[in-house]
């Protein structure tokens, strides 16, 4: 009998791809190596501006000195609360150079969420936008351990010629260069010891498998392994431009875009925040070879009437990750882009972005019974098992909890020994996702364990119902939740938004699902909304809809 230990997924990789991924202890090592190798190559692009590797090296060194001069010490935490802007990258590299840990913070967080993170992570320094600083960060930081604050406009690098201003009040960019140049000339040299693989690179806040937001401790080794694994498997070529569709403050953007691009000596193109029209312009301008974003971003791009196949012609690979990908979206994307395959990928903050993806050249199968699209196969060096409630492996094809081991799995949460022990027994990550694996090693994610709907004792997985809704011609986005029901305990309710110009009657959508799903699964009620609530990282917020319904 074969089992997970036989790693049936390895057959999808070439002999070379299966070899251990050689990677330095940190992405910073690789970046500095790239800066020495290709100093004149563009490291970053931001609208009309660009920064070369040498410049990025100098600026991040300057900021590291500036921080150290103001008391930032090895092991200290720097919160970076910015959108996809060059300053984000400079700040991350600076923190790592000074021996610190980065705490990426979603810039859309409000006071309460930010206060929790500043306290919980014991943040010593923060970089944010000038407007956020004046709006509420200053007040929030006042009651926190923060000792050093910098606004992005104090090192405003690239936005001076661009009408899309980054901050409310801007100084001439030369001031910014002065600040960093002065620090570089006069600041104390910091201890130039590079990070060790076990040092904490990031504290990434996530609601994780359950409960209140907690900080996953992504080590430098976690990031370096996943970045180099991606570089090896993608083989994009030296001049590749990687477009940051996902926010770099989230783990997918941080690892698959920022870390992989800078470790490979590629060019990372940033465009502030996701706005479909701006993204299409950026594709036309930067001609990226690769990007990754949540499926909802691709749905939004497909909804743009002006998106043409030519806009996507430069892509060699394009991935959807971080949220369920309905098979109907893959096909819509293929026909709209002239044949481009949207490759699924699965991961969590706790495994430093992907732990399974579709190998280049392959296409993920769709399970004939449930209609679920596979998320990919585990990468070489990764172990995935499917476990029952007692922690025993279930046979291939049987549903259970997905458990992951590998060099990209975090050692634990920041200052949470009990939650770490519960989520990572013996170092194996219990993901809280229900899934199954077929005999060829393709992994299928059924849904989040906690999102299961119990209708009269029947288990309904929202994603399966959503997949059917996405095949309806009028539906743009769909979210399915359980709502209280006096008779069934819970019943299935769907929220949808419609394609531009489309019109649909909720009763007709109910009937459409009824024809295609078992009697206990089809939504008893469909409500049409203008837009569905989403996280900044593009995940549709079922829990918000559930609260609204309940
Ligand atoms: P995060 O930690 O924010 O990256 O969220 C991780 C969660 O996103 C996982 O536990 C899954 O529930 C979900 N997820 C990520 N990728 C996929 C995918 N390809 N298909 C379905 N769910 C996904």
UniProtKB/TrEMBL annotation:
Domain AMP-dependent synthetase/ligase as annotated: residue spans: 33-414
Residue ranges of domain AMP-binding enzyme C-terminal in the record: 464-539
InterPro entries in UniProt: AMP-bd_C (IPR025110), AMP-bd_C_sf (IPR045851), AMP-binding_CS (IPR020845), AMP-dep_synth/lig_dom (IPR000873), ANL_N_sf (IPR042099), ATP-dep_AMP-bd_enzyme (IPR050237)
One family name in Pfam for this protein: AMP-binding_C
Sorted UniProt keywords: Ligase
Family named by the database record: Belongs to the ATP-dependent AMP-binding enzyme family.
Protein name, per record: Long-chain acyl-CoA synthetase
Organism in which the protein naturally occurs: Actinacidiphila rubida
